[in-house]
Amino acid sequence: MKLAPTIRSHIEDYIKEKGYKLQQFSNTCGVNVGTLSAIIKGSRPLAMNQLDQITSALHNFDRLYPITINLERLAKIMMSHIKQDTTHTKRKTVYPLFVYQGYSLLLRASCCSKIGKYEEALECTRTYYELTLIEPNEEDILYIEKFRKWGKINIYLYRLMMGKNEVLEDYIEHVENEYEGEDEEILVAIFNIVQTANRFKYDVNFILERFKDKINLSHIGSRHEGEYSEQNWNTRLVKFFYELAVYYLSRSSYESGMKALISSMELSINISNDPYLIKCVNLYGEYRRFANEEINVKYQQILQSNNIA
After folding, report:
1. Is the pLDDT confidence value at 207 over 80?
2. In a 3-state reduction of DSSP, which class is residue 163?
3. CB-CB neighbours of 229 under 10 Å
4. Is the dihedral of CA 130, 156, 159, 236 positive or negative?
5. Which of 175, 172, 173, 177 is nearest to 194 (CA)?
6. How many helices (H) and strands (E) would you count in the chain?
7. Mind listing the pLDDT tens digit for each residue in 166-179?
C-alpha cells in the first residue's frame, strides 16, 4: 500500500519544516513518542485515532486533502477485492473495511471545512452518514451507529458554517444530547458557533449565556482526560478564547472581550503558541483604549514576566 509512506513522509516533512524535535511533535499531537517514531520508521501501523490526532496537529489541510482522497480510494479497492474473494479468509485489518472508507470521508470533510469547501464537506458527511451493509454483524452495527452519530451533528455544523443560522439551535441540542456529560465536546461546539458568528456577524449571546459556567471552567487543570491530548486541548482553548474575544470586542462588550483575550494570551504563552500570542497582542493594540486599569496592569505583567517587548 502506498498510502502509509505518503502519510509518514508528510509527518517527517512537517517536523523538519517546523524545526521540531520528535518529542515536541509528540507533545502537540498526543501520540506517544515511541509510537510516533515507530510509525515514521514504518515498523508500526497507523491506527485511525492516531491518524486523527496527527492530522489535527499538522494543520496544513491543503496538503492533507489529497491523502484523505487516496485513503478512500484504497479502502474501496480493498473492499472490491474482498467481495471478489470467495475463499472467506479471515479479516486482516484491525477494523471492518467499510470503516476505513467512512473514516476517510470523515477526515476529508474535516479538511474541506478547514479550507472553506463546505459543500464538499457536507457531501462527504452525508455519504458516511448513509453507510450501510447488507448483513451487518454486531461490530459493523457499532461503527454504523458511530458514523450516523458523527454525521448527524456534522451535517448541522457544516450547514451552520455555510451561513445557515436556522440550524444553530438544532446543532447545539444534538451535541448536548449525544455528548451528555462530555464538556469538551460541548465546548468544541461552542467554539464552532462563536467562530461562525464572527464570520457571519450572528448574535449568539443566548448560547454564551446558556453555557457560561462551562466556559468559565474551561481552563488548564480543570479537565478530565478525554478524547484530546492536553496540548491539543490547550491549543483549542487558545483559539476559543481568541474567537470569544473577537466576538465580544466587536460588539462593544469590552470587559468580557478583554478577559477572554487575556485568557487566550496566557494560554498561548503556557503552550508556546507564538502565532496566536502575536494575534492577541495585535488585537489588544486595536482595542487598548477600552481596557480598564486592571486589564492594562495584567497585560503589562504578562509581557514583562515573559520578556516580551
Report:
1. yes
2. coil
3. 19
4. negative
5. 172
6. 16, 0
7. 999 999 999 999 98
Query: What does the buried/exposed string (b/e) look like for 140-155 if buried means 16 or more CB atoms within 10 Å of the residue's CB?
Result: beebbeebeebbbbbb
First to last CA, the chain: 51
Q: What are 121-124's contacts with CB under 8 Å, separation 24+? A: 121/154, 121/158, 121/161, 122/155, 122/158, 122/159, 122/162
Phi/psi of residue 162, nearest 5 degrees: -85, 0
Could you tell me if residue 36 is left (phi over 0), alpha (psi between -120 and 50 degrees) or otherwise beta? alpha
Please give the Cα distance from 150 to 127 (Å, whole number): 12
Burial of 134 (0-12, 13-18, 19+ CB in 10 A): exposed
What distance in Å separates the CA atoms of residue 111 and residue 149, rounded to the nearest whole number? 19
Residue 303 grid coordinates: 509581557
- Angle at the Cα of 41 (from 39 to 44), degrees rounded to 5? 40
DSSP string, 174-224: HHHHHTTT-HHHHHHHHHHHHHHHHHHT---HHHHHHTHHHHHH-STTS--
Closest by alpha carbon to 258, among 222, 294, 234, 233?
Answer: 294
Set of cell numbers at residue 160: 451552520
Return the sign of the alpha-carbon dihedral for residues 44, 52, 76, 117. negative
Side chain identity at residue 81, one-letter code: H
pTM value > 0.90: no
Cell of 17: 519544516
56-72 pLDDT, tens digit each: 777 667 777 887 888 78
Instruction: Check residue 93 and give left, alpha or beta (phi > 0: left; psi -120 to 50: alpha).
Output: beta
**Cα 229 from Cα 220, distance rounded (Å):** 12
Hey, where are the domains in the chain? Answer: 198-309
From 177, 203, 236, select the one nearest 56 (Cα to Cα).
236
